[in-house]
Amino acid sequence: MFESIERFPATTAADFSAADPDGRLETALDLYRAHVAEQSVRARFLTLVMAMEALCKPQPRPPEVQRLLEDFAERARALKDAKSTDAETCAVIDSLRQELHFRTHDSIRNQMRRLIRTSLAGDDDAEERREELDYLYGMRSRLTHGETLPGDELGKAFSRLRHIAQRVLRAKVEASLRSRT
Given 4, 48, 124, 130, which residue has the most CB atoms within 10 angstroms? Predict the structure, then answer.
């Protein structure tokens, strides 16, 4: 479709608006283009991860899990409303209730797995790329939580991630173009 997504025109992303009503593809393309300007391999790697995350769509957890989370949130609310609950505990309970609400949908890691399965469906190596992206996403977690990685390891990870991101973005762009016709 296009040889270098880095040179993909910025204005073209707006052409996808009909097939991309939530703007996920446009955001992902913006982030992909932005990774090129980053100064460090670490920043380029993390920006590419963000581009992939932008394409993810959360799915609700099973109804049984939803009910369990709702029950726990109700118990937390009742504890917060108790007259004996101090302000600090109330703040912690509010935070917990927000976390419970966030947990009503699947994890971003699971969304990334689904993104690869759906974007690369039919490709012989789709499962291998899913496993690879899962490993690379783990590296992202390590980096964002204070670990450092040797430069050569990070450089290889960046190259692998860029290859996957290009394939996923190409598949998403092609699907978007097909849906417009």
Answer: 48
d(CA 156, CA 125): 19
Given a contact cutoff of 8 angstroms between Cβ atoms, the answer to whether 48 and 162 are in contact is yes
pTM of the model: 0.77
Locus of tokens 């029950």: 71
> pLDDT digits over 120-147, tens only?
999 999 999 999 999 999 999 999 999 9
The token pair that represents 127 in the structure block:
């499962």
Q: Hey, where are the domains in the chain?
A: 5-59+107-180, 63-102
